[in-house]
Structure formats: C-alpha cells, structure tokens
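Continuing the batch. This is chain 6 of the set; chains 1 through 5 are on the previous pages. Same settings as before, nothing changed between runs. Recording input and output for traceability.
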Amino acid sequence: MGFSILGYRPFVRSAKYGESDVSNGVKISDSNSDADSKSELQMKNFVDMLKKLELNPMAKEFYPSNYYDAQMGDYNFVLSDKNLGNDGFPNDPRRRNNYNPNRRRMIGRAVRAQREDSVRRTVYVSEIDHNITEERLAALFSTYGHVLDCRICGDPHSRFRFAFVEFGDDYSARASLILSGTLLGFSPIKVLPSKTAILPVNPTFLPRSEDEREMCVRTVYCTNIDKKVTQADVKNFFETRCGEVSRLRLLGDQMHSTRIAFVEFFMAESAILALDCCGEILGSQRIRVSPSKTPVRPRMPQAGVVYSS
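Output for chain 6:
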C-alpha cells in the first residue's frame, strides 16, 4: 500500500505475466466486454430502424452527383414529377402504349407487299360498252383464271366505261392480257396491266339475299355531287332523264368537298340509262355514275326521327 501527502490513495496494481489488469477494483476485460455488448445493441437497433424506413430509390441521395447533374443540368426538376418517367425523362405516350417502331415498320412493309401483290393480280379494262354488266365482263375473264373481283366504273370524259378485274394469281392476270381487242358488245375492249389495286368493299354492305341482288341491278352509285345540291335536286335530275326513282340516299355533309348518292329505280332499264348521265353537270360539278354493288336498304325507324327516301 502507498500513501500520498493528501491522504490515503491506493495505487494501481498491474498484473504481469498473464494476470488481469485491474483499475479501481474493476477488471479491464470486463469493462471492454460491456462496451462491446452496448455497441452490438446499438448497431442492432440501427439496422432495425433502417428496415422500418420506406426509402425512395429515385431520391437524389441515391444518385451519384455527376449523374444527377448530367440529367438535371441547370434546371431544378423533380424526379417524381408526373410528366417524367421512372428514368427521369419525359413520358412518351407511344412508350406507354407499347410503341415499337420496328414492329410498325414491319407492318408497313407487309401492307405494301400485300398491295403490290394485289396490283400484279389485277388488269385494267377500258372502252367497255355501257350495255355490258359486271357479271358479263367477269364471265369473259374467268376463262383465264379465277376472278376475285370485277369493278366497272364510269368515265366522265367518254361514252365508254372502264373496269378493274382482279384474279386469284398473277399468272392468270398476265394470260388475260390476250383479250385486248376482243369485241364485247358493240366495242372492242382494251386490256392492260393495272397500276392500282381494287379497294375492298365492306362485306356488310353487299347483298344478303336474292331480293337485294335484284335491287343492285336497279341501283346506280353517283359521286362528285356538288355539296350545294339537295336530295330533291338529285331525284329530279335522274327522273327527268332515266325514269322514276324508288329510293335515294344522299350522303356527305358540309365537311366534304363533294357528296355521293345511291339511286334506286323502279326499272332496271332506268339504271342502265342512268349510266349515260356520267359526265353531265349537276349543280356545278360533273357527276360520275357507275353500277352499285350495294343495295339501298330502308332505314330502321326510330322514335321521333323522320327519314326521306
């Protein structure tokens, strides 16, 4: 034991050669063990606290400063803005709708290839007599292959008409070119390779019964009608030249430059005479008249609506 001038003070005894260190009567090893336990407890509490936090992975703190500066530049944008996507760039409607430019190009190429194939299978027939029907023209060309479609159109600048005939294969279309010069009715026809395809007709508009097919024989399709012309004007135009009209449907509005009409006559002979009106002036326009492939169906009656046919 040792004494100081101020009084009793125990000196520190250090153990040597394997003995434990003692400070103020407490073993140093025990003190270090308690400190380690407290550190482990604090670390565990800190980990538990982090698990309970709901972190935003898009927060600025989770980005390197150089990435954030490159994305934001000199502007103070907020990544959570509704106009920005998850990558921080403006939302693109085409991306939200699974827009794929490669897929769109592939579809475009497929459509063009289909159109080109249809053109190769189609021939153009001109100088067709007005008395020739589509059925008769199709029957002539069917001797060279299967005819998928036949469209006779009116020519406003000639007393003759022209047509497009589409075959099931391009070989039949090339073989049918030999028909050029064949006398059909009172005029020899001309047959050339077509530069355009026939636009398909909505199948719901085609005749559904024998009665509707008979209606088509008595119906003509009129285009390029002056939008100032009324339904009464169209009816009066055809009745004074061709015969009595049983039903008429004038389509179009002020948003279109011209209008179209389906004119059904009581007699099939009147429809044939109406084809000669192609090129005549109705209002301020030269109309085009061709046989109709669709009948003029009666409108379904609705309460409070009055239709005129």
